[in-house]
């Protein structure tokens, strides 16, 4: 008998609810790389399992919440690796499970998005090299440490296509 690969179901938000705020100054038990050179991205993006692939994460959604923007961006920029950072553990778990389910239901798609639980205010420089990140979507929780990052106020979920062409070279 043939064994069928089980398709993962999309997670239900009600099982991943958490208080709206998590203190970014508090000491959370977060695993983070000592420096960008120590970060192994291959478990997050299937493409990077090939050791000859030199792609890097170029878009970052800081405070990605339940991952709506990641999911919107994924088909718009299919060849760009996009990362969501989220401090709340249950919320980041939701995004991780959501991406796994989307990948399993749509073969070959959503492989360019991933999420990690971290405190972006403390550890952002541990993940990314200088000039690595081309676009950073943030809820303005950051003091920009990078000169190539700018911020505009918009509802990205609604208006993102108004700013960028599909797969625009930025
Ligand atoms: C206003 S919500 C926005 C969620 C999402 N970007 C959206 O537009 O629906 C801000 C999110 O940032 C997360 N957050 C706040 N401080 C953070 C930090 N220091 N590092 C990572 N995530 C953080 C919160 O847990 C929350 O989910």
Automatic annotation (TrEMBL):
It comes from the Eukaryota. PROSITE patterns: SAM_MT_TRMB (PS51625). GO terms for molecular function: tRNA (guanine(46)-N7)-methyltransferase activity. One of its GO terms (cellular component) is tRNA methyltransferase complex. It is an enzyme of class 2 (transferase). SUPFAM superfamilies: S-adenosyl-L-methionine-dependent methyltransferases (SSF53335). Residues 1-32 are annotated as: Disordered. It catalyses: guanosine(46) in tRNA + S-adenosyl-L-methionine = N(7)-methylguanosine(46) in tRNA + S-adenosyl-L-homocysteine. Its EC number is 2.1.1.33. Signal peptide: none annotated. Keywords: Methyltransferase, S-adenosyl-L-methionine, Transferase, tRNA processing. The keyword Signal does not apply. The keyword Membrane does not apply. This is tRNA (guanine(46)-N(7))-methyltransferase. It comes from Diaphorina citri. The gene is LOC103517277.
């Amino acid at each position: 008998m043939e064994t069928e690969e089980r398709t993962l179901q999309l997670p239900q938000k009600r099982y991943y609810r958490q208080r709206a705020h998590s203190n970014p100054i508090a000491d959370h038990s977060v695993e983070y790389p000592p420096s960008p050179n120590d970060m192994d991205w291959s478990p997050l993006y299937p493409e990077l399992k090939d050791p000859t692939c030199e792609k890097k994460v170029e878009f970052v959604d800081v405070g990605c919440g339940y991952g709506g923007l990641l999911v919107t961006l994924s088909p718009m920029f299919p060849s760009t690796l996009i990362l969501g950072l989220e401090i709340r553990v249950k919320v980041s778990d939701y995004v991780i499970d959501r991406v796994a389910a989307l990948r399993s239901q749509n073969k070959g798609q959503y492989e360019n998005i991933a999420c990690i639980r971290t405190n972006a205010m403390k550890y952002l420089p541990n993940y990314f090299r200088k000039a690595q990140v081309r676009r950073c979507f943030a809820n303005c929780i950051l003091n920009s440490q990078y000169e190539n990052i700018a911020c505009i106020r918009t509802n990205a979920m609604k208006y993102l296509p108004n700013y960028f062409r599909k797969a625009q070279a930025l």
